[in-house]
Amino acid sequence: MADVLAFVEQRDGQIGGGAREVVSAAAQLASGIGGSATALVLGGPGLAAAVEGLATAGATSVAVGEHEALAEYNPEAYLRVVVNHVRDGDFKALILSATSLGKDLAPRVAAELDVPLASDVTGMDAQGVVPLFIRPVYSGKAFARVSIDANLAIITIRPNVFPVGEYGAECHLSKFTPDVDPATWRVRVIERKDTVEGVVDVSEAAVVISGGRGMKDPANWGLLQELRDVIGPDAALGASRAVVDAGWRPHAEQVGQTGKTVSPKLYIAVGISGAIQHLAGMRTSQTIVAVNRDPDAPILSMADYGIVGDLFEVLPRMTEEIKALKSED
User: Fold this and answer.
1) What is the separation of C-alpha 268 from the centre of its chain, rounded to a whole number of angstroms?
2) Which structural domain, as residue segments, surrounds residue 237?
3) The whole model's pTM is what?
């Protein structure tokens, strides 16, 4: 029997929104191979208080490594602690979220341990002897089924794709102090620029409303903001590459191959034609709604619901209709 380890991210001492998803994915894989899911969290002092809730997501044990120097992510420090933890256990797989942190840490761990890595996984079949993982290839134009027949596999999962289970099992919590020496680090965090407080990151949002060049002017973004505010706090604004390159919106909102990959429950594309690089970043969204005045726009062929019309007429109407529906609840 071999267990599956879920690496759980924290930020400012708080567990990220995708933590339960990573743990549930680990529990799903563990159940298929006859093991159990455990979790590893690294951060500053007092972090143990933030891990409540991981048990219901499927973790049977959580190891919390607390050290003042680990409050901010450092690739050298995190790499060494994670590698040592994996070597000390009996793990068949290590699962991380395909966030900016996970995409940086996972290949480092795979290289250090000399084990295979499957990145940006969107599905898995753990019922066979050798687990199968599904991941997009060729900018999302196709999906590959990858089997990893190895003693240990590293997996990163795309956020907002795997459902969070309700297990309710007892969870054993253990704390340890990692042996880290900041004096030996070659990389240090000098400054961190956060997004606006209270605004959900586009890669973690349940609803993403993205605008493209069809918005015509950055001043018109207020229409998208009004729609976002009506939908609620789980919604975030996104943007196409052309919009970001023009300086209309910050890079943190860019959706696409050269921006962020998103998989929300609802993706609303407004004034976006649907270039390949943009489609690569959002095609796994559960439901896609597109608003475009061009009936031949590529985005409409991918959309579950397409509205051909003037966005400056459609958006206010959409906002009012959603507002009316919410007032009836």
Assistant:
1) 18
2) 207-328
3) 0.81
